[in-house]
Amino acid sequence: MSRDFIGALLQLNAEKGVPREQLVRTVEDAIQSAYRRVAPGNEDVNVRIDIETGRMRVFRARTVVTEVEDPTTEFTVDEARQHKPDARPGELVEYAELEGDVFGRIGAQTAKQVVLQRLREAEREVVFGQYADRESELITGVVSRVEPRGVILDVGRAEAILATTDQSATEHYRLGEHVKAYVLEVRRTTRGPLIYVSRTHKNFLRRIFELEVPEIHAGTVEIKAIAREAGNRSKVAVASRQEGLDPVGATVGQRGGRVQAVVAELGGEKIDVIPWSDDPAVFVANALSPAQVVGVTIDEEARIASVTVPERMLSLAIGREGQNARLAAKLTGWRIDIRSDQAPPREPAERPRGTAEGAAPEAPTEPGSAGVEAPAAAEMSSATASAGPAPEPLAQDGASTVEAAPAEEAVTAPRTRTRRTAQEVSP
Known about the structure:
28% helix; GMP Synthetase, Chain A, domain 3; elongated; 3 domains; 5-stranded mixed barrel
């Protein structure tokens, strides 16, 4: 060993990014392993390299124990004190020094292979550590390949997989294109770290807002909830931690500039930004915007919010194929029952004939009702959206149910505009 060896380590340190101390320890372990492979009886051979001079010492050393179990690597306290008077149990005591140049041609080849293998392992471990710390963050990569399993992104010293299930149906990727993605998981493999990323995860939208909105990045505006149908439409509920700061205005930006940048990154996905409220009735009314809400009745026990909207606003509240109501239910975590203010009053269900006393009657079939995918308002007077397991259908003519609701109390939502959206965001 010489200073040329130290120079080679410094070069490896610059190229691979592996710390010099770790490189030296790796080479020590590799040469030590090679010594032990070359000939039997070398189990107690140890190697130390001076990181400053590059000098290598090869010596025999054993661990001091009170009771010997492996005589090739251990010896008693009395034997150890013959070489080191103050030896204590647990210490590694050197008792003989070997010549450094003891390898033949075969041994030298073995040592070379072991050193290279250990260096590759050290490099993979360093790369894994770099990307493992980036889980749940954004990463930017260049499209290098498009395969059946997904798009492969070159992210520097590793590759990331954007699976087909994590791609938006409206997006198409070209070779050489720069793509932002959300890091879902980093796995350790024999070929290096395997990074799984997504562009459909709701936290991808959260991270993009943090990039575009300084108030969200600083924490003065908080994103409380997100409901997303990737590539189509999203709803984002925001709240302010600073008195006097309008969270919706800060998120949307002047003339919608900030939210427009987010929409552009998502390929034209529509985004509704609404104000958060601790009052579930107000929050449900806000979540159904742009539809105006006449009143909200909350049933906390069944977690159902019964919402009344003007007849002309019913189709807007439900949305195309029930999307607006479905996203509102996901955003709030309530079942939402949407009814027109001109719908007939709800009547109790009659118990079917032949039903035993106390037995639960079958759920009535409601003509013109729908689950999440509600029909047009012209053909129905109410609809239901659900964000969780659906309870038993309510007995109501021409109605269906939507996840929502705390205690039975009627709240009339203000008719003032409660959200601002990007220009592209339309119901």
